Amino acid sequence: MIRDYLPGVGARRSLSMDDAVGELNALSATELIDLVAVAKALGYPGASDALDSAVSPRGFRLLAKVPRLPSMVVDRLVEHFGSLQRLLGATVEDLQAVEGVGDARARSVREGLSRLAEASILERYV
Predict the structure, then answer these.
(1) Interval 58-85: pLDDT, tens
(2) Are residues 23 and 15 in contact, defined by beta-carbon separation less than 8 angstroms?
(3) Can you state the percent helix, strand and coil of the chain, rounding each to 5?
(4) Banded pLDDT at 101 (limits 50, 70, 90)
């Protein structure tokens, strides 16, 4: 979850995932329920202002559920598309534009994401 919501992408990221985990581990139980303290630990600039800005997942957690997808390819997909919304809207051809994603893998990713999205929608109504 931390990877999905850290501010910045790739080299522009101000805090590594390990650093963010360390910062969160250093928080007391009281600080963990303080949203400003958590935002600051995750590296959001002007943490109190960060609470007013919208955040959206990049897609790490969803891609982790796609079978037989190497973590290097997951990283490339997230870096290329930048957000879960753009990733979910990607066609097979869009996915093939990412290094390490051929036709078979692109179809597998597209089908896996579609299945996961459908399952999520079904869970809301069941």
Answers:
(1) 999 999 999 999 999 999 999 999 999 9
(2) yes
(3) 65, 0, 35
(4) very high
User: CB within 8 A of 101, min separation 6: which ones?
Assistant: 73, 76, 77, 95, 109
Instruction: Enter the pTM of the model.
Output: 0.78
Average pLDDT, the chain: 87
For residue 45, give the amino acid letter.
Answer: P
Tokens at 66, concatenated = 């796609």
- Co-location of 40 and 67 in the same domain: no
* Structural domain of 95: 60-125
Tokens of 78: 């997230």
- Smallest Cα–Cα separation from 77: which of 109, 47, 108? 109
Torsion, Cα of 17, 21, 24, 26 (10° steps): -130
Question: How many CA atoms, within 13 angstroms, populate the side-chain half-sphere of residue 96?
Answer: 7
Residues 21 and 64 in one domain: no
Give the whole-angstrom CA distance, residue 29 versus residue 58.
27
What is the tally of structural domains in the chain?
Answer: 2
